[in-house]
Amino acid sequence: MQEITGTVYFMSDCHFGYPNQEISAERERRVVAFLDSIAPEVTHLFLLGDIFDYWFEYKYVVPKHHVRFLGRLAALADKGVKIYYILGNHDMWNFGYLADEIGLQELRGVHDYVINGKKVRLGHGDGLDPKDKGYLLIKWIYNAKFNQKWFSALHPRIATAIANRVSHKSRMSHQRQDESCAVQLNEPVLNYCKNVLKTECFDYFIFGHQHHPFDIALNDNCRYINTGDWQTHDTYAVMRAGNCELKYFKTE
Question: How many Å from the N-terminal Cα to the C-terminal Cα in the chain?
């Protein structure tokens, strides 16, 4: 298990590109301001998925826009900041471009670290409910190499239009469900964390995906933190000296 020491930040669910470029660009400016504010002290940065609302890498083509954000990541990486990108369900089609260009590490699924002496499990947070067969099937379809190859054969303009339509339709259909999850304190992820704790000890579980910031005590020694999103809450988590805090970013 990799050990990390330093000032470690966690963020997720920027959904750059949604719902249009004008709104997304304003969100990007807030995220860039946040990255500038932490630049003097951050040693490690975890991006916990759905940074882009849609991302697909062709051999010679990647989605345009987001250059200010990507530039800040590159600047941090050039300074020696270690950046880890755990892919979410909206940006799972990263195939190494950002890793090569920026120097970050692309990851999938859940990962365990010892951060400042604390045992932490990290992930995007989707696909943790084994009873959600429909979602797990959809995720399998999206991850299938044959389907990715077929999708890459489409012209980028057509493929992007299809992906954006699917994303927006899914968001509308799940909006009420997401609100319900907020009231129930994100029940599927809580159940996942509690089941893991039956056989293994952790100090923190840190996930994104649900867009609702949470900091919940699971027992006397373990907390579950959800990093929220940058569409509504502008929230993130930071870990210093073994203590992890959920915070809200406010521009001056």
Answer: 39
Number of residues that this document lists for the chain: 252
pLDDT value at 53 more than 50:
yes
Query: Strands 235-240, 8-11: parallel, antiparallel or unpaired by DSSP?
Result: antiparallel
Q: Residue 120 phi/psi, 5° resolution?
A: -130, 135
pLDDT tens track for 154-210: 878 887 787 777 666 666 555 555 555 554 555 788 889 999 999 999 999 999 998
Single pTM value for the model: 0.90
Task: For residues 80 and 243, give the distance between their C-alpha atoms in angstroms, rounded to a whole number.
Answer: 23
CA distances from 20 to 14, 25, 164 (A): 13, 9, 10
Contact 68, 28 (CB under 8 A): yes
Domain with 225 in it = 2-248
- The single residue listed with the structure tokens 């954000």 is 69
CATH number at residue 170: 3.60.21.10
Query: Number of structural domains, the chain?
Result: 1
